[in-house]
Amino acid sequence: MSAPQDIPEDEALAAEYVLRLLEPEAERAFAARLDREPALLELVRFWEAEFAPLADTQPDVPPPPALRKAVLEQVAGEPAPRKRMWVFGWLALPSLLALAVAAFLVVGPTLREPVFDPAFHASLASEDGAVRIEAGYAPDGMLFKVIREAGAPATGRDFELWVIGPEAAAPVSLGLVPEGEEITFEVAPEIAALIAGGVLALSDEPAGGSPTGAPTGAILATGAFVDV
User: Fold this and answer.
1) Helices (H), the chain
2) pLDDT confidence tier of residue 212, bands split at 50, 70 and 90
């Protein structure tokens, strides 16, 4: 189970704004920001889309008399005092749904992580087969995934990955191969530009990686990037 994550303040405010949980003054201040902050408006639209299905799970029930009276008074031009409540549309959210929304705010960032959809793949294997690594690159998000299927560096050494562009430029480090079996990370645009038609290489380096910015140890394996 994923550990709870801190929610960015603006994202939490956007969720509360959609659910009409903000105090009147805070709501007005937030609404004023929407006209000049497109990113904030996108957060509001995101939460509107995320919370919409929650309303569909609730039975159709008449609004509480007090809420109906307040709505009618507003329509008639007689403002009624605002109350802080769990509201979605005209229906008060039951406590169970409120808990679901709170849980969504905690795990939401994890659920919204981009799906890894690789366009390029490379396979690396040492001559004796003791080291095997699979790698993939997804242009959407410039995400690179490394899966270590077999092998580990000697004590005091590290495996380091390199990308060599199609124009035979100098190798560019992708970083050390992690101790875990799998890792996904974002690469810089200049590295992403080398992948199509390029080659992935694995070298044996001192602990912490190459001290020179270029491979210094043995090249254990290479593999061309191919279209998936």
Assistant:
1) 9-18, 24-34, 38-56, 65-75, 95-111, 189-195
2) confident
Residue 87's CB is within 10 A of a number of other CB atoms, namely 15
The predicted pLDDT at position 85 comes to: 38
Distance CA 199, CA 165 (A): 7
Q: Work out whether strand 120-125 and strand 219-224 pair parallel, antiparallel, or are unpaired.
A: unpaired
What are the structure tokens assigned to 155, written together? 């004590």
- Which residue segments constitute the domains of the chain, with CATH numbers given? 9-111 (no CATH), 120-227 (2.60.40)
Identify residue 21 by its one-letter amino acid code.
Answer: L
Copy the structure tokens of residue 144. Answer: 């690179």
- The pLDDT, as a whole number, for residue 108 is 52
Q: Which residue has the higher pLDDT, 218 or 108?
A: 218
- Asked if 109 and 116 touch (Cβ cutoff 8 Å), the reply is no
Whole-number pLDDT of residue 205: 93
Q: Which residue has the tokens 């919409």?
A: 52
Nearest alpha carbon to residue 185 among 97, 86, 114: 114
